[in-house]
Amino acid sequence: MRNQPEYNILLVEDDPRHAALINRAFETEANCRLTITATLEQARSLIGNQSPDLIITDVRLPDGRGTELLDPVPDCPTIVMTSHKDENSAVRAMKSGAADYIVKTQETMASLPRTANRVMREWRLVIDQKLARERQQRLTAILEATPDLICIANLDGFVSYINQAGRKLLGIGEDEDIRRIRLADFHSPADGQKILGVGIPHAIAEGMWTDETTFVSLTGDRILTSQVLISHRNVHGEIEFFSTIARDIRHLRAAEERIEYLAYYDTLTGLPNRNELVKRLDIEIVRVRRNQNHSALLFIDLDNFKYINDSMGHPAGDLVLQEMAQRLQAHLRGDDTVARLGGDEFIVILADLSKEGMEAISQAREIANKIRNTIAMECRIHDTDLQVTASIGISMITRDETSGHDLLRFADTAMYQAKREGRNRLEFFSERMGSDVTRQLELENQLRRALREDQFRLFYQPLVDDTQQVIGVEALIRWQHPELGIIAPSEFLDVLETSGQIVEVGNWVIETALKQMTLWVSDSLVGDDFLICINISPRQFRDRQFAENINCLLDRINVPTRNIVMEVTEHNLIHNIDDAILRMQELISRGIRFSLDDFGTGYSSLAHLKNLPVKHIKIDRSFVKDICSDGGDLAMVASILALSGHLGLQVVAEGVEEPGQFEMLRRLGCRYFQGYYFSKPLSFEDMDAYLAGARQAI
Ligand code: C2E
Ligand code: CA
Ligand code: CA
């Protein structure tokens, strides 16, 4: 038993007999509930309230014609009933949208339930078809709007539908007849085979197959897609057609490749980066072990890159790196690798060198030298000709069990050694270097502590004139080690220089020397023309804050600047002579003088001297040593003295140990001297006493 009738039927009939008859006919229809009304007006309000499933209306009604209910056409079917003589209005009713009509007789009214059921069934069908059509239109709209290729193909592979995105992707025109097209023809030959051989069988067996495939459009574009192939079966389980969806993943793949690239390549130079290098190095190590040919790892570090970056700016520095990367690549052979480790460090793996150890080494040396020479060729950046040099450390990749990490470390160590030996050169790693590095690191730590714990001292060596009168002193650093006692600068200066600690220590030296000088002045131990000579290291001199620091010190410490002589060597000047001269001039303008130390050992010719703003030169000890026995040294010193006379330079002879040397130098016209013959370097207290003694002697 149903409580709720399935259909609400509205009967509009003013003739009570007819209404009773129809009502009776419907009494046996359990699924219908009849609502009866006699007027149009009531019918209208019931339609509004009850939304009947069927309206059955008489044409003639007291307040109008039943066909008026068809305007507007209601949401349900309407059956119109006419009397015998009124068949015309039945025709009109059908035209204006009635679903059916009956001519009222006993029989037609009694069989109205059957008619009603048929009309409602037909109406349902029409509605369902309409809905299905709408749904299909919507689905098609979705298919046409989606950006992926969607295609339906029948069993022999011919296309029966392809959406707009698919046409566009494959270059198929709007008006082209797709039924002649087979989708497999749009795949690359290999993928066409794959679809036929694997894709379709798999889709048949499993319902679906997915893979990455490449389509080739009519215009020849290769399109990488992620493709899905689906088989569709009918109710009997037979395959009826296939559909496929393919998404263009070229952008995705390009992005993936970019990410991959960034992880393994350096964007500035396009060279492999550290990650990629480590991978390749591991492969190389395995290869060396297998085929017994040696390989070599070159650690290349540009010598003056930081300076270029600082003085010309980073964009210029970048250009230099790109240029050097290209030059390095030009030296590659088959399996070689060039990588950028970062900054101005490059790595080259030279593969496939000789099986024979010594020969491999000499091959590596030869190529490394070629690389060094190419790097050193002038390069033009922003209208400036630059010369960049490189220090190269080499470690051989042999069949022993050395790891890639260690090989890199060894080559780095050797490179570091090349720097210490004067740059623009190459150095092979040796076992000894390994322990040197460890020692060096320990020393660096100890030196840091030395500065912190005030273990540095300044010794002073007198500078005398030809009457042996003390006219000044040179400050010389010592390390008062708590256990080892006094340590000479030759033991630790290099480490200070390479680690950069020299900048801080150098500042300490200048400050201490100037302060101690003020004590001698205030004690009247020295005259107001007494010179304090201070050694300035290359790194210290190149430091950007150098002049600024000195200016600050001079503001704090009251020493006349004309008493100060800064001793520099040609190493200080060699890297960028113009810049060095500018720096010197800045200090010279404050009254400080410069002296060229260790003269004769460097690169510069005597003629070079006249361009430098120096007041003094110090003839290196090595010429003084054999001046009485070696004619060459004698001639050299003589010519230095002669030329200096012309240029108005004062010459100091260093390392005078014997009276014979003193006499000879004096005879050649030298007027200033330094050396053990007069005094060894003395501590501040000893110097104090020495100066007091000298005072008294006058
Ligand atoms: P230098 O500037 O050529 O200093 C002269 C060196 O020769 C000093 O060695 C001095 O002790 C030594 N000497 C002086 N007279 C004689 C002699 O008659 N015979 C012999 N055989 N040697 C003599 P020292 O003090 O060991 O210094 C070595 C080098 O260390 C110096 O050479 C200088 O280049 C550097 N140095 C010393 N102190 C400092 C400093 O405070 N800062 C910097 N940057 N370098 C310093
Ligand atoms: Ca010196
Ligand atoms: Ca010297």
End-to-end distance: 143 Å
Query: Could you say what the CATH architecture of the largest domain is?
Result: Alpha-Beta Barrel
Major β-sheet profile: 8 strands, mixed, barrel
**Number of DSSP E strands:** 28
Rg from C-alpha positions? Answer: 52 Å
Q: What is the overall shape?
A: elongated
**Helix content range of the residues, please?**
40-55%
Spatial arrangement of strands, main beta sheet: 20-21-23-24-25-26-27-28
CATH class of the largest domain: Alpha Beta
CATH topology of the largest domain: TIM Barrel
Work out the oligomeric state of the chains in this entry.
Answer: single chain
Spell out the CATH superfamily of the largest domain. Answer: EAL domain
The percentage of residues in β strands lies in 15-25%
Q: Helix segment count?
A: 24
Short description:
With 698 residues, the chain is an alpha/beta fold.
Describe this structure in words.
With 698 residues, the protein is an alpha/beta fold. It folds into four domains: 7-138, Response regulator (Rossmann fold, 3-Layer(aba) Sandwich), CATH 3.40.50.2300; 146-253, Beta-Lactamase (2-Layer Sandwich), CATH 3.30.450.20; 265-429, Alpha-Beta Plaits (2-Layer Sandwich); 446-697, Alpha-Beta Barrel (TIM Barrel). 46% of the residues lie in helices and 23% in strands. The chain contains 24 helices and 28 strands. It has an eight-stranded mixed beta barrel with strand order 20-21-23-24-25-26-27-28, surrounded by four helices. Strands 2-1-3-6-7 form a five-stranded parallel β-sheet, sandwiched between helices. A five-stranded antiparallel β-sheet has the order 9-8-12-11-10. A hairpin with a 2-residue loop joins strand 16 and strand 17. Helix 10 packs antiparallel against helix 11 and helix 16 runs parallel beside helix 18 (546-556). It is elongated, with a radius of gyration of 52 Å. The mean pLDDT is 91. It binds ligand C2E and calcium ion (2 copies). Ligand C2E binds next to strand 21, helix 16 and strand 25.
